[in-house]
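User: Predict the full complex structure for these chains.
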Amino acid sequence: MTLLLGSITIGLVLALLALGIFISFRIFSFPDITAEGSFTFGAAITASLIVAGVNPALATLMAFFGGMVAGAATGLIHTRFKINPLLSGILVMTALYSVNLHVMGKSNVPLLSKNTLFTWFEKIAVAISGQDTTVNVLGWSVAARDLWTLLFCLLIIVAFSLLLLWFFRTNIGTAMRATGDNDQMIRALGVNTNGMIIFGLALSNGFIALAGSMLAQLQGFADVQMGIGMMVWGLASVIIGEALISDRSLGMVIAGAVIGSVLFRLLVAIALRWGMNPNDLKLITAAFVFIALVLPGFMKKTKKINLLSHKHA
Amino acid sequence: MLEITHLNKTFNPGTINEVRALQDVNLKIDPGSFVCVLGTNGSGKSTLLNAVAGTFLTDSGRITLNGRDITRWPEHRRASAIGRVFQNPFSGTAPSMSIAENLALAARRGRKRGLSWMLKPSLVNDLKKRVKDLNMGLEDRIDSAIGKLSGGQRQALTLLMSSWLKPDLLLLDEHTAALDPKTAGKVIELTERIVTEGKLTTMMVTHSMQQAVNLGDRIIMMHQGSIRYDFGGEEKKRLKVPDLLALFDELRRKDQIDNGVADLLIANYV
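Assistant: Here is the predicted structure of the two-chain assembly.
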């Protein structure tokens, strides 16, 4: 049960990553691999600042801004210098690897005895329910502070989801969605589409860096390798969400990405528990996303063939 | 109003694909005037419209609109003064967004877009009313995605969008060419109504000589990147389809003579 709670908590934290990928990949159809760099960048900024004694909330906020700068850099490279989306992201991601090492000063920064957002949460939890209490959840007894940590993460992710939903319903947010949908049309309506792409990627990577920052605080360290495979991970979450929820309205898609992230993390935890080699994790994630991308088209085709054969029969 | 002087544009200069799309184009359009732009394929009529809209920047010459020199303005900046409808019905609307959202985007054409709520109840009421005026039965479907509508419905909505905020200049680029004749007729009717009601200054590129004869108060004919004929006032009113066809023939014959003369000169002197 503790494992389950932990997985859900990590899934919720990584939902911020899924929301970031949702912005770049679904709103702009921009395969933004900057994610892998900005995820670590967020973790690196927060970890270094916390080690330096900065308030964890401020350190987390700085990670968000750091991610925004990284995303804006990718957007600038793409729009200003007409470099293809994937390559722009690769350039920034590669550059960020060195930047991250400089920010952290070494390849791994532990946060074990430091004050993080989560030690705050735990303090609040202890204040509310007392030290070492257990709570009965569906017949299992779990540590109250694990449950509280999960609730705090849930609260944060719900708040950010609502914020994103609200943003995409404002004048500027709607124009951003239109930029991804039909850039010619929205330019004819007076929107600077290049500016929108830069802003959108900044926002996307802000969310992703925030996910990195929170994950570093949750697991108690930042590592220069922690971003590897994160883009595909986020994609998997978004795709699972879309498969689960057929409603394509904005709120449902955002909720889907969050639920997808949690579910995907649970699936991974279960697979690992059943003895899957952790080394195979990325391979299986990539295969999963590949299948999820190919399957809808494949199903349409077989449906067509079935229809045709019925006609001939 | 719109004043174009010595406008030139060459695509792919210095390559084998060089196209001199606009050659010394001069044009002055009075406020409230409705100009039909005719021309052969590749004559530069759509290029002229795109040059005014700012899809690309021109090589030389000047474009002024309402006294402002817009020659170097990027496309999105010109949008504050210019409304556009494209040939392709898919170009003018965002397919996965709702009718209401598309119209609301147009309701802020060229204006600042901030963090205020997009679909305010007052705006939604207003746009329901205006959609109802289209008589297409779309007022009950304003929350459904615009991509599900037919080409004609999308063009009608694009027209409504382009004229939501009164533009200084309305550019219609063969906006009925992709529609079936009946739908095209409806969209032309709507065009006429919107232009007349709003007293809009309009440039309409068309392939249909019938449209050019029926609509507007001026016809310009382009050929090989420049304006060859310009009819306004009484002259335009007297113009009929056969007259226009004759003019096209004349342009074509002139071309042949040009080539013929060149051959003759080469044969005799080279």
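Chain A touches chain B through 23 residues (CB under 8 Å).
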